[in-house]
């Protein structure tokens, strides 16, 4: 199964709501909160990174920067 990763640099400390929002999206495989640099594993055939970014912004989280890694097997 191919997957991609996006690392989000988010300033907010409370990310409980963010985890719930991401888990509802089809194509999200795993969300790993890790201080300021959170990692999202996703299936690029089911969801795009820009859909993930839009969802995070709509949930009122501020993304200071992000990094998208290519597909891996």
Strand and helix layout:
Elements: E1 3-10, H1 16-24, E2 28-32, E3 37-42, H2 49-58, E4 63-72
Antiparallel strand pairs: 1-3, 1-4, 2-3
How far apart lie the N and C ends? 6 Å
Average pLDDT figure = 88
Radius of gyration: 11 Å
Strand order of the largest sheet: 2-3-1-4
Overall helicity: 25-40%
Model regions low in confidence, pLDDT < 50 over at least 5 residues:
none
Beta-strand residue percentage:
35-45%
Number of separate helices: 2
Largest sheet: 4 strands, antiparallel
Number of strands: 4
Overall geometry comes to globular
Topology as a string of helices (H) and strands (E): EHEEHE
Supply the helix-strand structural class. alpha+beta
Describe the structure.
It is a single chain. The chain has 73 residues and is α+β, with helices and mostly antiparallel strands. It contains two helices and four strands, in the order E-H-E-E-H-E. It has helices spanning 16-24, 49-58; strands spanning 3-10, 28-32, 37-42, 63-72. The protein has a four-stranded antiparallel sheet, covered by helices on one side. The relative contact order is 0.35. The model has no long low-confidence stretch (mean pLDDT 88).
Give descriptors for this structure.
single chain, alpha+beta, four-stranded antiparallel β-sheet
Quick structural gist:
It is built from two helices and four strands. With 73 residues, the protein is of the alpha+beta class.
């Amino acid at each position: 199964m191919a997957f991609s990763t996006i690392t989000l640099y988010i300033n907010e400390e409370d990310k409980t709501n963010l985890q719930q929002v991401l888990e509802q999206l089809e194509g999200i495989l795993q969300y790993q909160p890790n201080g300021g640099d959170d990692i999202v594993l996703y299936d690029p055939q089911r969801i795009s990174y820009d859909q993930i970014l839009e969802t995070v912004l709509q949930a009122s989280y501020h993304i200071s920067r992000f990094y998208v890694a290519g597909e891996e097997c």
